[in-house]
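User: I'm curious whether this sequence folds into something compact or stays loose and floppy. Could you predict its structure so I can see for myself?
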Amino acid sequence: MQKILLLEDDTVLAETLCELLKGEGLTIVHTTNGEEALDATFKECFDLLLFDVNVAYINGFELLKSLRESGDTTPAVFITALADIGSLSYSFSVGADDYIKKPFDFDELLVRILALLRKSYKTYENEIKVDGFSFSIDKQELYKNGEFIPLAPMELKITKLLFQNLDKTVEKEVLLEYLAEGKEMSEGALRVHINKLRKIDLPITTIKGIGYRLGKS
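Assistant: Here's the prediction. I'll summarize afterward.
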């Protein structure tokens, strides 16, 4: 299920937007100020950012600018009462994908959001996400909150197998055979690699006597 981060301090408008988007089968995380929204991006991955601009602590423009500078490429839409050409221009300069002026037509907003979600799904359909981490099957790369995490070859292989079996238990014997490449590998060596991955906060659970599972903590 695709997930949207909504930053909007108008309670009535936010409730209407949440109802509209949930009606399309989307999951909505609603925040009312820039700091809350920033914290939310650290905790989980989103498929789209829907930001008001004039909000407390960190305004929408500066928030998106910071996210883009950190490597976060999540599609973003501004919904704002700012109607001047300078604001419009600045919104795209900080990385917005769309800009809608208040008051807006809800049907039009929905069309634009769904179009961006379809586009991003096609782009990232080979990306698997969990607890702020995302793994690109095509690129063989791990990211945490949009930031690339370099991995040693063995840890990368374990990560790939666990992500491909997200929320499923991978037996120790399967992991050992997958990693061995014609050579013997001990359970102790496997535990060392698993512990290194846990140090970067990958949510790996030990299933006693069976193996390991990657899933939401």
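Summary: The two ends are 18 Å apart (CA to CA). Residues 128-214 form a domain with the Arc Repressor Mutant, subunit A fold (CATH 1.10.10.10).
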